[in-house]
Structure formats: C-alpha cells, structure tokens
Design a protein that fits this description.
alpha+beta, 443 residues
C-alpha cells in the first residue's frame, strides 16, 4: 500500500462535497432543477462557480457551508455536452437508475412507477446539495445559490427536500449514523478506522489509480472527467412502526428487543459496534468516533458470533472479511442524511408521516461499487453462504425471508421479514470538477 504522499490530489479543482464528510451536526436541503433553456442552464453553472467550495476549503466558502453541484446524464445532454463526449460516460450512468431498477431490486412498491416525481422521469437535470452546521449558515448559503437561478425563467426548481440531524444524529430507526468514513489516499482527510489503510483515490475520483492500479474509465475530454465523481442519490422511506412491531413480537423482553435490533444492524443504537461490545450497549464507546470504528471483522469476529455476517452494517462495509468480492473494490463514500420527524418513542402504529434517509454515496464506478453492493451484498446472501438471506433492514424482503443470528449452543433465526425500507426514487449524478463546470458553462 502506497503512502498518502505518493498521490497528490488536485484539491482546488475537486468539489468539497466529493471528499469531505458532512458537518456534524447538520441541516441541509437538496434542490433539483429542470433546464428548459440550455443557454440559461450553462449561464447558471457559471454563476454557481463562486458558490461551490473546493476540497481545499473544508469549511466552505466564507466559513459558511458548501454547495455541491451534480448533473444527470440527460442534464449534460440538455446543457449541450457534445455527443462524442456523452458516449464516453459509463453505460449505467447513461441509462439512469430508473431504467436499471429491476436489476437493482427496485420492484413492487419500490418500482419507478411508484417513485416520487420528478425522480426517475428524465426531468432532473441539475441537482444542488447545500449542507451546513446550523440553520443560520444554511440560510446564507442557500440564498447565495438561489440568487444564481431565480433570475432564469428557463431553469425551474422541480423538487426540494429538507434534511436535518435528529437528536444524537440518529436515523429514523434510532441508530447513530455517519460513523464510518474511509481515508482517501492523498486527500489529507483522516478516516475513522485506524486499522484500515487509506483507499486509493481512484475508487472515488476519476483520473487517479484505483485499488488494482488502473484508472477507471473517465469521460472525455479530460477537462470534463478528471477530478469528477459519480453520486448515487436515493430517497428511502422507512417503516419505523412496522420495524418496532416486528421486534416487539419476537423479543422476550425490552432488553432482548434491543439486542435483536443491534444484531440486525451490527451496532447498538448508541453507535457502539457489536464486535467491540457484543453483550450490551456502551454509549461512551458509541460516542467516540475513533474507538467505535477501531475494529475489523476477519481479525476480530470471523464467524460472526458477535456481529452476524448478514447484519446491515457488515454487508455495507465488510472491511477485511473473506467474502465473495474484495471489500476495498466495492467501498462507498456515504454522505447520507435524514428527513422527516422521528416517530415518538414507544409508538407502534404508523402515523402517516413521511420519514427516512436520503442515501447519498460517491464513487468512481457505479457498476462496481453501488450496483455490486446493492445486488450482491444487500439483495442476496451468497457472499457469506446464505443465498436466500437479504439485508434484514434495507433489503427487498417480502415476508418470506429470514435472518440468521449465530449463537452458542443454538443459532437463532428471525423469520417472515417484511419490507422496512421503500425506495421513493433516485438518480445517478455526475459531480464535475470546478474546471469541468466552467468548461460546460462556456460551451
């Protein structure tokens, strides 16, 4: 493994949101735009440039926050990117998430015909993400972004989703989130796991060597592709009441209920990992971002006695586990956020309120990273010898699946797993470098 100094990233040309973790705590908003006038759309990108912070400016422009700009494949076409350049983008990005829904397991209630408009319709051309540590600074950065598009009649806001950290930065399921971040070689940004070597920059950024020493296919010309990344964005509605009721019906008591929940996720609600605290929650451990990630699976729990091999967190990031697929080749840089209010403690009936997670992940290869993880590690269990077991929390379970919890002397099984997470829609986006944004704006 090369040292971080072996690779020098062009941080001043990379959008801040492509490398830096989101603020802690955070508030934010996602805004989707449709471009009806290509000339005005290009002018908009030019005006956005002063608002977008680079990765060399971790605190954001004027110490406020930062805006990230993503463009869909159809958006690139509408903005006038030449056809010969469009053909150099990966097939899965060209097709879009909706067209690949069936292979991703987005069927039934998660199928595109049930998605929240305009997601998956082709109307999404430009996406803006604004994140900040507090509402005051968010208002400042959002107003700066709004000033860039409100004067253009040919650019229309078609979707807006506010997000914010819940108390304790927990997801709607009640688990602390945003705990694990990889170190990217050459970025100077530390990771959260001291036992994990930095991941090659080419796994997340285009134009740099990846874990196998290759440079992933990069859109051309070089000014368009280099220093860019791809974003996968999905609006995931969570059925919290059904999840709580499922656990209540199968647990012996409240303590067992908490244990079953931890076994499904791989961590206790505080964020303490089962590998380091298998028998009881440890809030002090969960609150220590470095200690709570200082473990590996193959080295510390190879058989999954502490943390089941099929647990959600272990599926999403198997670390050093010996499984089908080399974990470092399928690593995602998650930047997910929560939306909607928490369901009050103890409530077991659905209140009809929309709540969940805006799943966001950056990568250089949509096929080898997000799509592999979704189809092989989330939707199946073949990689650890249980092909019929899906992710117990976010997998496309239909009521007939099960989840195995290794235990001595007799293993435990949860059966009849229903769907706890429904995909309300998503997009594949390209996050260009700052120089690429300028190049597109001047077409």
């Amino acid at each position: 493994m090369s040292t971080a100094e072996a690779i020098t990233l062009e941080l001043a040309d990379i959008q801040n949101g492509a490398l830096h973790p989101r603020p802690t705590p955070y508030v934010g908003v996602y805004i989707l735009l449709r471009v009806d006038d290509p000339r005005q759309g290009r002018q908009l990108l030019g005006r956005l440039l002063p608002v977008v912070a680079s990765a060399s400016d971790p605190a954001g422009r004027d110490k406020q926050a930062w805006v990230t700009v993503g463009i869909s494949f159809e958006g690139l076409r509408v903005l006038g990117v030449p056809e010969q350049s469009l053909r150099t983008f990966p097939k899965e990005f060209q097709e879009g998430m909706a067209a690949r829904a069936e292979s991703l397991g987005d069927v039934g209630e998660s199928a595109p015909e049930h998605w929240e408009a305009p997601l998956g319709t082709g109307d999404v051309h430009i996406a803006l993400s604004a994140l900040s540590p507090d509402t005051e600074r968010l208002a400042t950065v959002v107003e700066s972004a709004r000033e860039t598009y409100r004067d253009y009649a040919g650019v229309e806001v078609i979707w807006r989703q506010e997000v914010y950290a819940q108390e304790g930065e927990k997801t709607s399921f009640g688990f602390k989130d945003g705990l694990s971040n990889p170190a990217v070689e050459g970025s100077g940004i530390p990771g959260t796991n001291p036992h994990e070597a930095p991941v090659k920059a080419g796994e997340f950024l285009l134009g740099y060597p990846n874990e196998v020493g290759e440079i992933s296919p990069t859109p051309q010309p070089e000014v368009l592709g280099r220093n860019g990344t791809f974003l996968v964005v999905r609006k995931l509605h969570t059925r919290v009441a059904a999840y709580r009721q499922y656990l209540r019906d199968r647990a012996k008591d409240r303590a067992d209920e908490e244990l079953l929940a931890a076994k499904m996720v791989g961590r206790w609600t505080s964020g303490a990992p089962l590998v380091l605290s298998p028998d009881a929650d440890d809030p002090a451990l969960g609150g220590d971002i470095e200690r709570s990630n200082a473990f590996m699976y193959e080295a510390d729990d190879p058989r999954g006695i502490k943390c089941p091999v099929g647990a959600h967190a272990r599926r999403m990031n198997p670390r050093d586990a010996s499984i089908i697929g080399v974990p470092r080749l399928h690593r995602l840089m998650r930047r997910s956020t929560s939306y909607g209010p928490m369901l009050p403690d103890g409530v077991l009936e659905d209140d009809g309120v929309d709540r969940g997670i805006i799943f966001v992940a950056a990568m250089a290869r949509i096929d080898r990273q997000f799509e592999f993880v979704k189809t092989q590690w989330i939707n199946e269990g073949l990689f650890f010898g249980a092909p019929d077991e899906k992710d117990p929390l976010v997998g496309p379970n239909s009521g007939s699946e099960q989840f195995t919890i290794p235990h001595k002397p007799i293993r435990r099984r949860l059966t009849e797993l229903p769907t706890f997470v429904v995909n309300r829609g998503g997009e594949y986006l390209f996050v260009p470098s700052l120089s690429a944004l300028k190049w597109i704006s001047e077409l």
